[in-house]
């Protein structure tokens, strides 16, 4: 049968089943060209031709291997020789190994397509006796899968720009990559789950992780819900028929959103300075306080200050969003509720709030995920401070992402930072996916 013959031919020589059995010359040559490209990359990126001619008696993959063999070797061993000039750089070997695996995956996908296509093309000939030309095949392929073909280059770029750094971070969590083992002076080693055990079982690390995680959750909920409901309040006020000059008030209230967040945070950092800040000076002159308020240096007051500043910066986006939702609500619902004897509060609780939350639930979830990783809101205002002697390289207002930043840039503890990044990714992804599944927008897909 032609399907079996085409299949077995294409298993060994890509595209041969299509070219010989199915008479699809152009397609067969194209698929064979992919196999030829794979072989050429490996052969001519290394010293395999010289080795075959006997010019390299002491051949080693480390020095003479090609792109794929050397990449996989580096990923497994992470190097065998130390030294700045002639030694192995474990981080570079890891990156090259990941890239080689990604490229191999693309070639593997092409190989599987080659085998499946050879079988299906031969099967179609067995059933109909008709030989489909390469031209007709590509026409049908483009007409049925045009969207996927157009998105394929973007998908490949996404693979290398987005997915590869994530894979690199995950792999780093299983290495001893810290200030005591920095390449190229030292080689890295695979240490398995020891970094995870350190984070959860070593008291100083587990204590710090738990405290930072609790504050991260509190900050996420407080920062998100405060901006959401304060934005709703402002939207309801501006939407009220008795309010005049709405455009003026709307413009004023949008200003915190229009100013770059980093600039606003640095201004607030100076404004809330515990010793020389204008706010403390004004309160002292008015006699409201007798001592300076440590807005950014007291652990509790600093956390409250962060939430309040975030409220100022974050509510305009929800206000604008909800103004649009309120403007498009069906007024007949309120008329029917009024006829049934419902008051203003009942109408708000039973009609306005459910409809607004239904329309903005996806944005609420995205805002919550953003606040969970809100590095700027913490670092530019307090830099994670004030310092806390009971915590390992973390301050009282540090959230997980700012703690990761300190572990990476200040302490060079890339292994623990990578573990934190993996946990952060899992937590945010799981909570966001669970919440999205519960939204009406997701259920309607």
According to CATH, the fold-level topology of the largest domain is MetI-like fold
CATH superfamily of the largest domain: MetI-like
Strand content: under 5%
- Compute the separation of the termini in Å: 43 Å
Q: If you compute it from the alpha carbons, what radius of gyration comes out, rounded to the nearest whole angstrom?
A: 31 Å
Helical fraction equals over 70%
Mean residue pLDDT:
91
Reading off the top of the CATH hierarchy, the class of the largest domain is best stated as Mainly Alpha
CATH architecture term of the largest domain: Orthogonal Bundle
- How many distinct beta strands? 0
What characteristic shape results from the CA principal axes?
flat
Continuous helix count: 20
Flag low-confidence runs. none
Description:
The protein has 445 residues and is mostly helical. The protein folds into two domains: 171 residues, no CATH class; 250 residues, MetI-like fold. The protein is 74% helix and 0% strand. It has 20 helices and no strands. It is flat, with a radius of gyration of 31 Å. It starts with a helix and ends with a helix. The model has no long low-confidence stretch (mean pLDDT 91).
Mind sketching the topology for me?
Layout (H helix, E strand, L loop, with lengths): L1 H11 L3 H6 L3 H20 L3 H5 L8 H4 L2 H11 L12 H39 L5 H39 L21 H8 L1 H37 L6 H13 L2 H11 L6 H9 L12 H29 L3 H9 L4 H29 L2 H8 L17 H11 L3 H25 L1 H4 L2
Helix pairs in contact: 1-7, 3-7, 6-7, 7-8, 8-19, 9-10, 10-14, 10-16, 11-14, 12-17, 14-16, 16-19, 18-19
């Amino acid at each position: 049968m032609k399907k079996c013959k085409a299949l077995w031919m294409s298993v060994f020589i890509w595209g041969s089943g299509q070219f010989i059995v199915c008479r699809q010359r152009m397609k067969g040559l194209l698929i064979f060209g992919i196999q030829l490209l794979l072989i050429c990359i490996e052969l001519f990126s290394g010293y395999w031709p010289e080795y075959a001619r006997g010019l390299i008696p002491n051949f080693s993959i480390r020095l003479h291997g090609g792109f794929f063999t050397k990449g996989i070797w580096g990923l497994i061993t992470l190097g065998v020789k130390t030294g700045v000039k002639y030694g192995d750089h474990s981080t570079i070997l890891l990156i090259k190994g990941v890239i080689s695996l990604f490229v191999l995956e693309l070639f593997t996908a092409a190989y599987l397509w080659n085998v499946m296509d050879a079988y299906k093309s031969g099967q179609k000939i067995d059933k109909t006796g008709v030989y489909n030309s390469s031209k007709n095949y590509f026409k049908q392929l483009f007409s049925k899968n045009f969207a996927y073909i157009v998105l394929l280059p973007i998908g490949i770029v996404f693979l290398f720009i987005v997915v590869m750094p994530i894979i690199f971070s995950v792999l780093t969590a299983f290495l001893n990559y810290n200030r005591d083992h920095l390449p190229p002076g030292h080689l890295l080693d695979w240490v398995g789950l020891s970094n995870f055990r350190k984070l959860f079982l070593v008291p100083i690390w587990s204590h710090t992780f738990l405290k930072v995680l609790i504050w991260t959750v509190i900050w996420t909920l407080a920062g998100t819900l405060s901006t959401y409901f304060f934005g709703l309040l402002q939207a309801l006020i501006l939407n009220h028929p008795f309010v005049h000059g709405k455009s003026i008030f709307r413009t004023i209230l949008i200003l915190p959103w229009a100013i770059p967040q980093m600039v606003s945070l640095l201004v607030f950092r100076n404004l809330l300075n515990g010793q020389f800040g204008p706010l403390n000076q004004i309160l002292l002159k008015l006699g409201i306080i007798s001592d300076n308020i440590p807005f950014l240096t007291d652990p509790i007051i600093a956390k409250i200050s962060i939430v309040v500043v975030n409220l100022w910066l974050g509510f305009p986006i929800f206000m604008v969003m909800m103004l649009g939702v309120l403007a498009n609500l069906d007024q007949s619902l309120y008329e029917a509720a009024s006829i049934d004897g419902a008051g203003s509060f009942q109408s708000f609780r039973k009609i306005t709030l459910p409809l607004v939350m239904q329309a903005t639930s996806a944005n609420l979830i995205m805002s919550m995920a953003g606040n969970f990783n809100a590095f700027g809101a913490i670092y530019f205002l307090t830099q994670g401070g004030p310092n806390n002697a009971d915590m390992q390289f973390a301050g009282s207002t540090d959230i997980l992402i700012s703690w990761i930043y300190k572990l990476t840039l200040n302490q060079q503890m890339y292994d623990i930072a990578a573990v934190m990044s993996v946990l952060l990714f899992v937590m945010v992804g799981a909570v966001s996916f669970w919440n999205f599944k519960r939204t009406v927008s997701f259920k309607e897909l």
